[in-house]
């Protein structure tokens, strides 16, 4: 037992989730992060069923993807496109910590802190894009190219609303 025992109520989780969502708004603590995909071939969405005739999302959850949604609403991962890279590069907004002292140790992995690494926090909907990216630059800084140091880890308070990703400088 600790003084915190019992305080993590559903309401507490909801307040916490809203607070983190606010931090991750495009103009809050986040910076522009440019994902570079190695291929111009379409990367199909791993969260919804494709409509092969319309060549876009059928707006039906595929039962295996990271972000379940109601049938006939817009897939939160591909936003209804059915694939996630319309271009070779794409800018997303994430909170990025370059100083290991501030890293969240929220997931299951214990993080070692070598130099030249960064940690990003974003909504879990972006994890498919991150997984498929060859490299990333932060804040438009072309002189520092980072690559994935492991798959994004989905985390949250009793849910998986967020993705924490480790990056290493090339
Ligand atoms: Zn989709």
| CATH domain topology of the largest domain | Thrombin, subunit H
Number of helices: 2
CATH architecture classification of the largest domain: Beta Barrel
Poorly predicted parts? none
Describe this structure in words.
It is a single chain. With 170 residues, the protein is mainly β. The chain folds into two domains: 10-38 and 88-169, Thrombin, subunit H (Beta Barrel), CATH 2.40.10; 46-81, no CATH class. It is 12% helix and 30% strand. The chain has two helices and nine strands; from the N terminus they run αβββββαββββ. Strands 1-4-5-9-7-6 form a six-stranded antiparallel beta barrel. A two-stranded antiparallel sheet has the order 2-3. The N and C termini lie far apart (45 Å). The mean pLDDT is 85. Bound molecules: zinc ion (ZN).
Key structural traits:
170 residues, mainly beta, Thrombin, subunit H, 2 domains, six-stranded antiparallel β-barrel, two-stranded antiparallel sheet, 2 helices, binds zinc ion
Question: What's the layout of helices and strands?
Answer:
Layout: H1 10-23, E1 31-36, E2 48-51, E3 56-61, E4 89-97, E5 117-123, H2 127-132, E6 135-138, E7 145-148, E8 153-155, E9 162-169
Antiparallel strand pairs: 1-4, 1-6, 2-3, 4-5, 5-9, 6-7, 7-9, 8-9
The protein binds zinc ion (ZN).
